[in-house]
Design brief:
alpha+beta
């Protein structure tokens, strides 16, 4: 199924894959919609990628085994929910060392990452600065051997369904973001999961669509280099 995923409703959560659940929509301000994603690997150490807008989804997350870890893709996900997630699930917080100060305002990070590596949870941590200094993407092997790429706000699909770079004038670093997108283009994901989204979901099953061409399309949305 190209360009979409099977979606089944559960209390407050939407099942994307056998091991991947999408939280309810959070709109921090008009025009921006975000979701967090609960990955339930065979190890039983569930991982929450990004962050929820509050505690509305917590009971549903608890029913699925809770969250042993929380991974932030960038500083915009830091907020009061971090302490709530820590207190409810005893989740270990993973964040970029480049944005430690912003995250620490809300919760103490248990793990700070600086470079590309595969960690003890089988998650490949890929620093992708540009949208923000500490923007990071994550690659995991999910159900059925499919590869899931969590891109945060580094790359997403716009209102017309085209791929776009997460460039914010006067905030983002254009050249760093372009280099990060080139790094992502070399990957071969099956499912791409962004934080920011325009439609109902930030998940996109690529099917036969070459990921490199999606990234090329996103690169073309960047402003011209100086």
């Amino acid at each position: 199924m190209t360009g979409s995923t099977a979606r089944h409703e559960a209390p407050m959560l939407t099942q994307i894959r056998n091991d991947l659940w999408e939280t309810s929509t959070y709109s921090p301000f008009p025009g921006l919609r975000t979701h967090a994603y609960l990955w339930t690997p065979p190890s039983g150490d569930n991982v929450l990628f990004y962050s929820t807008g509050g505690s509305d989804d917590f009971d549903a997350i608890e029913q699925l085994g809770g969250a042993a870890h929380q991974y932030l893709s960038h500083r915009d996900e830091a907020g009061p929910a971090l302490a709530q997630i820590r207190d409810r699930f005893d989740a270990r917080l993973h964040a970029s060392a480049a944005e430690e100060e912003e995250v620490r305002e809300f919760a103490e990070p248990g793990v700070l990452f600086t470079d590309r590596h595969i960690d003890g949870n089988g998650i490949e941590v890929i620093p992708t600065p540009g949208h923000s200094p500490g923007s990071t993407c994550f690659l995991v092997t999910g159900a059925g051997g499919l590869t899931y790429l969590f891109t945060g706000d580094t790359v997403f699909r716009d209102a017309k369904g085209a791929w776009a770079a997460g460039f914010i004038p006067d905030i983002s670093d254009r050249d760093a973001l372009a280099a990060s997108l080139e790094t992502l283009a070399a990957l071969q994901p099956d499912l791409v999961v962004s934080s920011a989204c325009v439609g109902d979901s930030g998940t996109h099953l690529l099917g036969a669509t070459p990921w490199a061409s999606c990234v090329d399309q996103a690169i073309r949305t960047l402003p011209a280099a100086d």
